[in-house]
């Protein structure tokens, strides 16, 4: 049967990993600007290494360095976006997922009027995308709250941030709504539990009480903000759609031992909490009981329950990179994934970074999500981070990347054949960008190579990899030709 006509093919980027120009055009500092280059961090230490203290933040902001703070430079998408968009159009993209840097529009998050230089940049970006026939899919918050909000009140822990985000979102809808009709509120909203500073601007040492309680407080405020801006979008642009975005961490029991099955069930209950709230409109009873058992309370304010119930998202998007397994055995071998650790699956291969490769897991994830919610789905992140080698003739031969995508696309199409309503697919990332976790570029995802090393040396020249031409062929055939 294959994919439907009008299926959206493209790629996905984040402002904090691609744009650069961290101190240009009136942009204010974001939490991503204090993320340091850490290529050799043990994945088991990920959460520790992504904590920030007042002292470390002050030291980072006193330093103008862009070598060891790579997200400040990105790949210079801010200045080279026309060149990059032309390459995406050459591949045949019908959609490109990008994000809007909040601090490029509101440098501290608290200004009453937006920064017009920031508005002009995104207007130019979206206009050029539309000229090339590329539909913008825009994330409002992608791991870069304004640093000023983190320093002032732990950003999303403070309920006042909801109103500031509403002002930012209204500006985005007012100024860009004629060019953008597909939106996402928060990138991997569940990530705030794993990396509170990156997702929510939470500085551990300034939190009063339990950090875990602070994370769930902040998460609730993001839920409320998401419902509020969904309502706002529908009022301002009735034909536009708002989606949510989940880190799809599909988990299998490591064995058929009932305790492993029960542990997996408990893990998935919290995995689906975010989509249950944003797509289903309410906190599920079992998830609330599980949080209550941990001593965590949800800070409901008057009107929250009604707002969540009455303004769910229109579609569900998710990232998918790997699956995990779960076991109650304390000696079970753990392996890294997308900012998580899971028990290693002996039946799956792993990338150099330990992420296990599971194409069938994508089909399982699609079917589970659609069966659970019955809402349209969108795969907005999926890809393979690898080291690429430039040959003497200036080529990048990456059959491993083609194999990865071929196997995942085949399973994606099988899920659609089984009845899943899938709107589109955006790879992460179509061009090499700075890694979210380690701030390195040598962990490359793109179909397009960027001549830059981990410390920023290089010309920035863009080169088409072998996978570029393969993906071009896949898009032209709407997934029918995966050879």
Automatic annotation (TrEMBL):
Entry's Gene Ontology molecular function annotations: beta-glucosidase activity
Stated name of the protein: 6-phospho-beta-glucosidase
Keyword Hydrolase: yes
Active site residues per record: 381 (nucleophile)
Domain of life: Bacteria
UniProt key word Hydrolase: yes
Top-level taxonomy: Bacteria, Bacillati, Actinomycetota, Actinomycetes, Micrococcales
Keywords: Glycosidase, Hydrolase
One GO CC term, this protein: cytosol
Family named by the database record: Belongs to the glycosyl hydrolase 1 family.
InterPro entries (UniProt xref): GH, GH_1_N_CS, Glyco_hydro_1, Glyco_hydro_1_AS
Listed Pfam families: Glyco_hydro_1
GO terms under biological process: carbohydrate catabolic process
């Amino acid at each position: 049967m294959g994919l439907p006509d009008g299926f959206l093919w493209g790629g996905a980027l984040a402002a904090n990993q691609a744009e650069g120009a961290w101190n240009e055009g009136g942009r204010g500092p974001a939490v991503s600007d204090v993320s340091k280059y850490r290529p050799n961090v043990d994945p088991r230490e990920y959460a520790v290494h992504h904590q920030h203290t007042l002292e470390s933040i002050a030291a980072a902001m006193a330093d103008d360095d862009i070598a060891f703070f790579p997200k400040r430079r990105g790949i210079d998408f801010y200045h080279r976006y026309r060149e990059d968009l032309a390459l995406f159009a050459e591949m045949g993209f019908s959609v490109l997922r990008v994000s809007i840097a909040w601090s490029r529009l509101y440098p501290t998050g608290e200004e009453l009027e937006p920064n017009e230089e920031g508005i002009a940049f995104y207007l130019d970006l979206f206009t050029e995308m539309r000229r090339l026939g590329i539909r913008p899919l825009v994330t409002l918050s992608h791991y870069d709250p304004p640093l000023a909000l983190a320093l002032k009140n732990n950003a999303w822990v403070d309920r006042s941030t909801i109103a500031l985000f509403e002002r930012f979102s209204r500006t985005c809808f007012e100024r860009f709504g004629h060019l953008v009709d597909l939106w996402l509120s928060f990138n991997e909203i569940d990530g705030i539990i794993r990396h509170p500073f990156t997702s929510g601007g939470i500085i551990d040492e300034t939190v009063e009480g339990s950090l875990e309680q602070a994370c769930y407080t902040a998460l609730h405020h993001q839920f409320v903000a998401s419902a509020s801006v969904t309502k706002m979008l529908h009022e301002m642009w009735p034909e536009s759609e708002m989606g949510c975005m989940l880190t799809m961490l599909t988990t299998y029991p490591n064995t058929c031992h009932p305790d492993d099955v029960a542990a997996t069930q408990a893990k998935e209950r919290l995995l689906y909490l975010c989509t249950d709230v944003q797509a289903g409109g309410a906190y599920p009873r079992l998830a609330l009981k599980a949080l209550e058992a941990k001593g965590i309370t949800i800070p409901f304010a008057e009107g929250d329950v009604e707002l969540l119930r009455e303004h769910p998202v229109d579609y569900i998007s998710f990232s998918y990179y790997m699956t995990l397994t779960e076991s109650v055995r304390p000696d079970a071998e753990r392996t890294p994934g997308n900012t998580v650790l899971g028990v290693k699956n002996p039946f799956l291969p792993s990338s150099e970074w330990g992420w296990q490769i599971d194409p069938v897991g994508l089909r399982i994830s699609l079917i589970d999500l659609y069966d659970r919610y019955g809402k349209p789905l969108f795969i907005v992140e999926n890809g393979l981070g690898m080291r690429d080698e430039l040959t003497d003739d200036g080529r990048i031969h990456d059959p491993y990347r083609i194999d990865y995508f071929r196997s995942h696309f085949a399973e994606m199409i099988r899920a659609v054949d089984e009845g899943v309503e899938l709107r589109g697919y955006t790879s992460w990332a179509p061009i090499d960008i700075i890694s979210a976790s380690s701030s390195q570029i040598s962990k490359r995802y793109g179909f397009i190579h960027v001549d830059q090393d981990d410390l920023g040396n290089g010309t920035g020249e863009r080169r088409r990899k072998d996978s570029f031409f393969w993906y071009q062929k896949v898009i032209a055939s709407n997934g029918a030709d995966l050879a």
